[in-house]
Specification:
- By secondary structure, the chain is α+β, with helices and mostly antiparallel strands.
- The chain has 3 domains: about 450 residues, no CATH class; about 110 residues; about 130 residues, Jelly Rolls.
- It is about 50% helix and about 15% strand.
Length: about 725
Amino acid sequence: MLATRARTSTDRLVAALPLTGIYVVLCSVYLVEAWRRATIWLFTDELETTQLSRSIAATGHAARRGVAHSSDGIYSYVTAPMWLFHNVATGYAGVKYLDVFLMTSVVFPTYLLARMIVGRKAALFAAAGAATIPSLAYTSYIVQENVAYPYAALCFFLIAKALVTRRRSWIWVAIGASALAPEVRGELIVIPIVFAFAAVFAIWSSAWAHERRRSWSTGDWIGVVALGAGAAIVISALLSRNSAEWYEISTSWKHRAFVLGDWAAGSLGIGLGMVPLIAGLASLFRAPGEQASRELRMVRCVMVGAFVSFGLYTGMKAAYLANHFATRVEERNIIYIAPLLFIGTALVFERRRVNVLALLGATAYAFYLVAGTPFFMDRQLYSDALGLAILEQANRYLVWTPQFAQWLLLGIVVGSTIWLLALRRLADRGRVAGALAATLAVGVLGWSLTGEIAAAAGTNSLGVAAAATLRHPFQWVDNIAHGQPTIYLAQGVGDQGPEWLLEFWNRSIVTVSSPDGTLGGPGPAGGPNITTSGKLYWTLDPLKPGREYAYAVEDWPCIDLAGTFRGKHYYKAGGGFASWKLIQLAQPNRLNAICSGIYPGGWTGPNDSEYFRFGAGSQGWMRIVVSRRDWGGNTGPSPFHVYMGPLVENAYNQPQIASVERERKGTIDSFQTKVYWMRTIGPRFAVKVVVDKKFVPHTYDPGLSDTRTLGAEVTYTFFKNRPSATLHK
């Protein structure tokens, strides 16, 4: 008895080694990729998730920039312990490495589900395929797919197990897992729908239902079809009543939903090398000579339910985004069916049988996807469609063109179909058929893993570029502020990327704000109210400011806060370098001066620019420079006016010029610079520069991509005492 038990335990251990080996090897590859990723760059997804996770680690509650927010899934809680490390770099590395182990764990539920219908070798192929798709490059991102992807595969297994066994224990586990799925990630609300569809398909395909349908007349069939259509209409009406998104797309943009859903499926198929898409879809139909089994029928029910549910969800979401944000390839939302496609492919490879009509139909669909899916080979990486990464990197390093890529993919579609037909034809010749199946399996895994490596290379390259933008030391604010509450205050922000990077790497920054509203989320980014003395307050009452900060990062040239200078950091911006200053703030927090209407490169825009001085203790001097030294186009001279007047607070608790007390006039032309010195009218004042004749660079030179309306390059500098003659120019 003891010997039998020992042999059983040993046998189980030996049987588990191949699957464990696949997991360990793939984790090793992805750990290296994660280690090489220098910084986050997928804004705002990664930063928002980081904010929620850090807040949970610090307070136990999810928040963005200190304001309570839903956790957006359990991923924020799973990664929260990593942010207990004081050092951001350590915490970031911990999150990435945890992501690798989490997402790669998809091999286990995929293997278990595959083993319900195929042998060990075929199940190992399916497990390896599910864990080598290009989207496994998300393991180095801080995104919810790292938990959601393996969890969806686990739910598929539990649903299939419940339908096969019909035991209460499995049914309740499947129900519980499906109910929890939306808490794992919001879009996994699809999982309960998959369960419902699978149950309906299971009933429809049962022997009892077959027996009942034998006695149906033509009228009965018409009635069933009518009932089905009516049920679909009722369900759609209920969804429309409770979802504005569903109503909008289902009433006006149904065609767009199908097209964009196909784009996502096409990107997924390309990333998998097309074979799993073709074979996986063909496996849904019974092959000649196939021995029926309850396990196979239930797995197929789950597959059909998942394909329909995730396909519909992806198309609807993509169509909604196209109406309100941008037209995108949303492969990211359909990757969850990849394990099922590999399981179907494993079934075809192992049994070497396939329904020819189903295979030809799947091939025709693959042709349509390759012909209609945009490849976006003009960019380094398409973050929502990593299946396209292999083509993007091939364009970058092998100079593939979209036309060449399309012909290659069409060739793969035709070649794989012929290969599968040959596999069916030679099914009785064991060794030959086995060699064909093994060769195709190796080719599929090789293509898929190459796509994953290409996606990781793309994201790591973008991470290097982002790191070069921020520049070391990344944690320069934390090194000085040491966790004391710090505000990032800016004006005229054209590219928020550097700020997002700074915010991620410096936990001391708890609030981001811009008086002109040019900074955005994730999280609150509203501007403060400002009194005529420069005091910042975040309520309606200046006597109750609401928040006070110990430090502030100034984004020059338009922010000048009262306090003590503590540090400076240069970063890349606008083709050159810009600087941030770290100020230990005076209490209460207040501004010395602020300007508006100036782009990061120094040019004024369509609404001109203003400068507000909130108090310097006494009068002083203003140096105003108006220039077009960096513009050589033939726009002709433009008059401009410099106005100075008293500073007042408007009805929106923001500063403005009350009236004009002093004025200077001049003209400015290409390559010219004009400098004006003006004695201030008091410690508090406002200055405004108005350029009469503005221009659009692209209009004068179509080779320029700049379509902004520009006035002049304007700088404002305050001096308590007028400097020496060397600065009078």
